[in-house]
Amino acid sequence: MRKSLIVIGVWLLAAAAACSSLLGLEDTRTSGLDCPPQQADCDGRADNGCEADLSSAATCGACGSACGGAEPLCAASGASFACAGSCEAPLEICGSACTNLADSAANCGRCGHDCGGGLCVGGVCQPTLVADAADALDTPAALAVNSTSIFWSERTRVRSCPLPQGCLLAPALIADTYDQLKALAVTDDAVYFSGCRACDDHHDLYRCPVTGCPAVNPLISFTLISYNDIVLGKTRAFWQDTTEAITGCAMSDCAGTDTRWTRLTFGFEDLVSMTSDGDTLYVKGSTMDLRTCPDADGCAMPTALPNSSLLPMLFRVHAGQAYWLAPGPTTGQVRKCAINDCGGGTLFAVDSYGGTELEVDDTGVYWLNPMQGTLRHCALTGCPVGGAGTLATGRVMPKALTLGKGFVYWIEGNTVVKVAKP
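^ thats the sequence. predicted structure below, dont judge the formating
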């Protein structure tokens, strides 16, 4: 009798394990991750998150459950998924899966459009947290993204999370015990930031590896002024200080003794902003024409572009075009112009008043409107007849708009937020 009970107990444990596997729960529970619907942590690694799509033929309904045949297909079956022979409407075939484009986080609105951990509602990816107050963020101020990670400055430290999923574990500490951290920029090798150790009336410049600052203070420059902005080109780093001077160095020796500084001074009377499209640095003062110079030569001989004095301070350049936010006669506007002949530009998009930050890349133009709590977007070819697209609504004073591969990032209170690009 005792032997029979043992056999029955072993059989029940095996059956329970099999049921957990079918539901895709076993590996999720192993790493302690709380995976979204249709996803699971099948490799048991917390660092890459819920990497398995349970609607795919490779992991159909469960980790380790693969569909066979020449054209394997996975389809919804009750609350889970099972191998199938065809898809029924409204499902569509994405790869080897029957997919509802209205709610598939991996195929939201179209096949291959991954929400990166966010939900898909009505075929639109929803914003999701990259890092939040649970990670004890202390007033994040600036964001920067490279090909593998997102970095942000807090009051006394710089931290980072791997992309695309974000901080499933604690954020990595890059720099600590600084103070008043402000500007931030990154390459795939190094983090550049401004702040101070013994703060009085100035900030210093720092550069350290993306893996973290060494024990020795990675100081680039010590002065009696403060630094407000950092812009990186392809080969050089440029800094703006409170005297409205632009200073630069070759990235290859910024941390060395021969920094080969270039200094462009505009003076206290003219506020200055700068941006780069990688190959070229652009500098604009509130009352002067746009100055431009190739990144490679360190901006030793900047050229003033004619007909550009009306270009505002907040502008971005991409593929020979400048874009900026401007007031219109009845509403807010996004305007654009050819960088070599700008003038007042032409109307690109219309939005409510309140736009504060704008960024542009190959995927389009993006801008924040904190007053409306929105993130808007238009392709480079222009906005559709119905107006600009809305990627996020209901946001509370978003700031620090930053673009990365496949996603848009911003800071909101003590959180870092992202949403998939359209």
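DSSP finds two helices and 36 strands in the chain.
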